[in-house]
Design goal:
By secondary structure, this protein is α/β, with parallel strands linked by helices.
């Protein structure tokens, strides 16, 4: 007899019951919604057929079954029941939202192809041998069947419980009594019993909190102090040290072994007598021979600029007062803009990490961690995508594969994919990626593959066999390459596959509807049957997200929330592969990290806040499902290029003082850029100069991707041990009361502006929403994110070994709660988007989010790794690049006119950091003055005047000093940052290109939005370009017209004509003014030299629009100018050239 699987009220147990049939209808099978109540009072239903839309379901009946535990209906062993429930959860798609029940749809398969990995959703397994039961047999971490009887009779969990309770404990196969009726924990190969989960008493969150409650003050003190000399243990220095104060050994040879080779049994308390405490990071200061002249030149240039501007104001040009006035105003603004950009660069620094020390502290056997199990905190990685047409699913899949293969403890790593479009194409592409990860991830671990993006790895032009020593590498690589090629074909064919499948199911539905119509209406005229054309999943049910043909509740901006666990959480212990099968994985851990697909609910009438809203939904869902204290967010096209990148970032967070870091920002590196980097796509000046300089202040700005966050910093809490206020003019007038003596542990979570004010717990639901799961997870995340308390000066630390316990298994109530927090209504009347999470209201939500954290006193660091941490793609087409810059500049204008303006920053933000943020909001306004200044040389040549009356020695000396100091500063920046001179020049060129096009449009758009409330979008009007698909940089030569190109084109043409007119006028003048001509021509060539990449982009592909066209354009302009001068020569002169003669 089939047994129905349903949920008990207990949050962690499954219960059972026999089939319940409706009286009078014994022959009709019934659809049961397996109901359950969550801790917050919501009910969920769990049904295999819930989403099936077959007509004729009128004969079926749905109801909820809830049976409380009774003496004859006791739940099975908690650890086993949780594992079984996790299998059900991982094979189920959870949907729900506003005013709708949360449903768990049990899926037979998620993709058309076969899935073999036991963690994969829809993985195939053995069926129960009991007649009439189609349930799956329980399986272990390897996917092998768990059979309770020695006769190996296959039986599912529910039938086994029925056999034990109602059948006298007799095996249905061999008819012998079961020797073990409790299914205790399995025994591993070494004969050791696997560790049990924490005690089953209390709720899931109570068990999480029990660890934190047990770590009292005395325990922390015992782990930090001892009977040995601290002066020998810690050597304080003012030289190079990590993010805290600690001695950094020059030889770096303090391992855990006796010889410093790191192979010992760990650092014991006695070892600290002779071995100094080692930090995880250190500061590498810029050499004094570079930074001292750099600062001196900045001071000299400031003085020279002040003297020059004073001289310019005093020495007017009465012949062209209008030209003089415009130039002086522009020069004053340029001086201010340069000062805002240069002052934050006074304290640049570099940093370095020590991964060996991280391994010794967190993954080496010690007294507090005898087994050497990883004590690193959990890690949640967010990948966001919105439109599979603009963001190809294959690119997103490669990014996910690089995350799953990252070098971080598998049981601590989780990956969440946000599909804001709710597309089945993205869903099935992610499922294909999870299936291919079964091969790719073990292959990477076995052979230490870099990079771990399969598409990038197999596209490498260098020798793939370099430094590979294993004899089977060539064979393994060939096999994996073939599998990857097949994987790419499957993903690329998904759009057609989904369309054909949906058409087939739709035709079946129409046929069934027509048959039913004929049965009900025998002699009547039949009308055409109209059935909404749905999009169907691989298991033959409706896709709950966006359909290919939009319908109600299935359109973009109108669909239910969806959560699917693609890869369930791995086992707590390493799981090594076998030599049989595809690859020899004998000594390779084959576990895969948790992978979750998330598509938040969207409904008409709600402002979903684009990417920021999607990221906040992931923050809440991940807090309930895995609650990693650290979050890494990546764009779908940015993959992990360095598999150790997560560990590099964790070095900063786990070092002394790391609890005051809100995020670690990594530089953005790009692939697919043309070798000359025509439009400065690498943006190296910003990432290697500006960001390194900000790292010497309060830290770099958040740039949207490649950023490692501390979760509680995203929650809007203040940093620990934050100072009351910096001294200000108000302190003497309004003195603050003396701070209360509150223990530091009690002040770890604060959201007020004062350190001595504890957070009012009654206001927490108003800030975070009404999810008790989410609120209870906050102190857990804060505790797990603390640095290791292995140093007497480490404040707010956690004891070693506290994070070696297994993670909680997923159950249905947990995922159901995650569905609730991603609903469209959850953020109503909360502080999500205003103080908590990613901040709403700006196109550049990344900069605003980082600014809010710095404004609360948090610090950030810049992590530049030897091998690039992440790599992504950037637009190389001119028009696409201009629109990208337009979006950034528009966000900056919005910041300037909002309360996020740095002028309104709190006193917790340092003055130079405030100047840096002020420059972020001001730099687009430079375009107004830049446009005017680019036309000044042309106006000078047209009028025959110049910005000064004569090119005297004083003006030329000032101009020479300003130019030389600028060049020297550039050379020194190149020296301490490591960029090249060509990169610096490309940045200067695109600064003028963007300033005369996108920045001006952003200012106009921002002013119209603020003043008149009108929003303007600059869109592409036409496109034309090459069709050579074999050219890697074909997109570079495409010419797409946009209105942003009008100002630069006008500047180019006006300056070219002005040069011709200036030469003609000087030649025909009676008294030629060669000094004014030279001044005007020099500045015109300065403008044209900066706009050269723009003009080159307008020419398109080389050979199709020859350069001679521009040469002829110049000749035509000169000819027209000479013709105009010949027709209307200067009065009293008919000789070309006037009195000019060559010396």
């Amino acid at each position: 007899m089939a047994s129905n699987k349903h949920f008990d009220k207990s949050p962690s147990n499954l219960s059972n019951n026999s089939d319940i049939q409706e009286p009078g209808r014994p022959s009709v099978p019934q659809t049961v919604k397996f109901g359950r109540r969550t801790s917050s009072g919501r009910y969920i239903s769990y049904s295999r057929d819930d989403l099936d839309s077959e007509l004729g379901s009128q004969d079926f009946m749905s109801y909820t079954v809830q049976i409380p535990p009774t003496p004859d209906n006791q739940p099975m062993d908690p650890s086993i029941s949780q594992k079984v429930e996790e299998q059900y959860v991982s094979n189920s798609m959870f949907t729900g939202g506003f005013n709708s029940a949360t449903r768990a749809h049990l899926m037979d398969k998620v993709i058309e192809t076969k899935t073999n990995h036991p963690q994969m959703a829809g993985a195939k397994g053995s069926s129960c041998a009991i007649p009439g039961c189609d349930a799956k047999v329980m399986s272990d971490e390897r996917g092998q069947d768990l059979l309770p009887c020695e006769c190996d009779f296959k039986i599912c969990r529910d039938c086994f419980i029925d056999a034990v309770k109602t059948g006298g404990g007799i095996c249905p196969g061999c008819k012998e009594p079961y020797k073990n009726t409790h299914l205790t924990d399995q025994v591993d190969d070494n004969g050791q019993q696997r560790p049990m989960l924490p005690g089953g008493g209390g709720s899931k969150m109570e068990r999480r909190l029990s660890l934190m409650k047990s770590t009292n003050k005395s325990a922390l003190m015992r782990s930090q102090t001892g009977d040995f000399d601290h002066n020998r243990w810690l050597f304080e220095t003012t030289g190079t040290y990590g993010y805290g104060n600690a001695f950094w050994t020059k030889d770096g040879n303090f391992g855990s072994g006796k010889d410093g080779d790191g192979d010992g049994d760990g650092m014991e308390a006695q070892d600290l007598m002779s071995k100094p405490w080692r930090p995880l990071t250190r500061k590498l200061k810029i050499p004094a021979g570079v930074i001292s002249p750099y600062r001196l030149l900045i001071f000299i240039r400031i003085v020279v600029l002040a003297l020059f501007l004073t001289w310019r104001i005093k020495h007017q040009n009465p012949d062209a007062i209008w030209l003089w006035g415009m130039s002086v105003v522009c020069e004053l603004w340029f001086a201010l803009s340069w000062l805002l950009d240069q002052l934050p660069k006074l304290c640049p620094i570099n940093r370095a990490t020590d991964l060996q020390v991280l391994k010794e502290k967190f993954e080496t056997p010690t007294a507090s961690n005898p087994t050497g199990k990883s004590d690193l905190p959990g890690f949640d990685v967010f990948v966001s995508t919105a439109d599979p047409e603009k963001e190809p699913p294959l690119v997103t899949a490669n990014t996910i594969l690089s995350i799953l293969a990252a070098e971080y403890p598998v049981e601590k790593l989780s990956c969440y994919v946000s599909d804001d479009g709710g597309a089945l194409l993205t869903f099935e592409a992610m499922a294909e990626a999870a299936s291919f990860a079964n091969i790719w991830v073990p292959f990477c671990r076995k052979h230490a593959i870099e990079p771990r993006n399969p598409d990038s790895y197999f596209s490498l032009k260098r020798d793939p066999y370099k430094n590979k020593v294993k004899s089977d590498f060539v064979k393994d690589r060939r096999r994996v390459k073939r599998e990857f090629d097949e994987f790419k074909v499957r993903v690329n064919s998904l759009p057609d596959s989904i369309r054909r499948r949906s058409d087939a199911y739709h035709a079946r539905e129409e046929i069934k509807a027509m048959k039913m119509q004929r049965q009900n209406r025998d002699d009547e005229i039949l009308e055409p049957v109209k059935i909404p054309k749905a999009t169907w999943m691989a298991d033959g049910t409706h896709w709950p997200g966006t359909w290919l043909t939009s319908a109600s509740d299935h359109a973009k901006g109108d669909h239910a929330g969806i959560i699917q666990v693609m890869l369930k959480p791995p086992s707590d212990e390493p799981l090594h592969g076998v030599s049989e099968g595809f690859l020899d994985l004998t000594d390779v851990d084959i576990r895969l990290p948790l992978l979750v697909y998330v598509s938040r609910e969207k409904r008409p009438g709600y402002d979903h806040n684009k990417k920021a809203g999607a990221m906040n939904a992931l923050v809440r869902a991940s807090a309930i499902m895995s609650n990693g204290p650290f979050i890494l967010n990546l764009d779908c096209d940015h993959y992990i290029y360095n598999s150790e990148a997560l560990r590099e970032g964790m070095c900063f967070m786990m070092d002394r003082g790391g609890d005051r870091l809100c995020y670690v920002q990594f530089p953005q590196r790009f692939e697919g850029i043309d070798p000359s980097d025509r439009y400065a796509n690498h943006n190296t000046v910003f990432f290697d100069v500006n960001m390194r300089a900000l790292d010497g202040l309060m830290g770099p700005v958040y740039v949207g991707t490649g950023c490692l966050f501390r979760r509680i910093a995203l929650y809007g809490f203040n940093p620990p041990r934050s100072k009351d206020f910096s001294p200000s003019c108000w302190s003497c007038c309004f003195p603050r009361s003396k701070k209360k003596n509150i223990p530091e542990e009690n002040r770890a979570l604060r959201m007020s502006d004062y350190d001595d004010e504890e957070m009012n717990l009654s206001l927490v639901p108003k800030k975070f929403g009404n999810s008790t799961f989410l609120i209870d997870s906050i102190p857990v995340a804060e505790f797990q994110g603390r640095p290791l308390a292995d140093h007497p000066a480490v404040k707010n630390g956690r004891p070693p070994g506290a994070l070696t316990i297994p993670r909680e298994l997923l159950d249905a109530s947990t995922v159901a709660e995650a569905i609730a927090v991603i609903s469209c209504w959850y953020e109503d009347k909360t502080e999500w988007g205003s103080r908590i999470g990613w901040i709403y209201g700006s196109v550049t939500e990344d900069v605003v989010t980082g600014y809010r954290m710095h404004n609360r006193g948090w610090k950030s660091v810049y992590c530049v790794t030897k091998r690039d941490a992440f790599r992504g793609t950037a637009p190389i087409n001119l028009t696409d690049r201009l629109h990208q810059v337009l979006r950034w500049a528009t966000g900056s204008v919005e910041i300037f006119f909002s309360r996020n303006n740095a002028l309104l920053a709190s006193s917790k933000m340092k003055i130079l950091q405030r100047i840096a943020y002020l420059n972020v909001g001001i730099y687009p306004f430079t375009s107004i003055f830049l446009i005017v200044y680019c036309f000044l040389p042309a106006l000078s040549l047209f009028s025959g005047q110049f910005i000064v009356q004569t090119l005297n020695v004083t003006f030329l000396v000032y101009l020479l000093i300003i130019s030389i100091t600028l060049c020297l500063l550039a050379l020194l920046e190149i020296k301490w940052s490591g960029i090249s001179l060509e990169e610096w020049w490309r940045n200067e060129q695109f600064w003028l290109i963007g300033g005369t096009s996108a920045h001006l449009a952003a200012v106009l758009q921002g002013l119209l939005k603020v003043v008149a409330g009108v929003e303007i979008s600059f869109t592409l009007t036409s496109k034309s370009g090459g069709d050579d698909i074999d050219d890697e940089f074909a997109d570079l030569y495409m010419v797409k017209w946009t209105s942003l190109m009008i100002p630069p084109i006008t500047i180019i043409m006006v300056n070219l004509i002005a040069i011709a007119v200036g030469f003609s006028r000087t030649i025909y003048s009676v008294v030629p003014q060669w000094s004014k001509l030279i001044g005007g021509v020099f500045f015109s060539f300065w403008v044209l030299a900066h706009l050269y990449p723009f003009a080159k982009g307008l020419m398109g592909r080389r050979g199709r629009t020859p350069t001679i066209v521009y040469v002829w354009s110049g000749l035509v302009a000169i000819t027209i100018s000479l013709l105009w001068v010949a027709i209307n020569p200067p009065a009293g002169n008919t000789e070309i050239g006037g009195n000019f003669s060559f010396p």
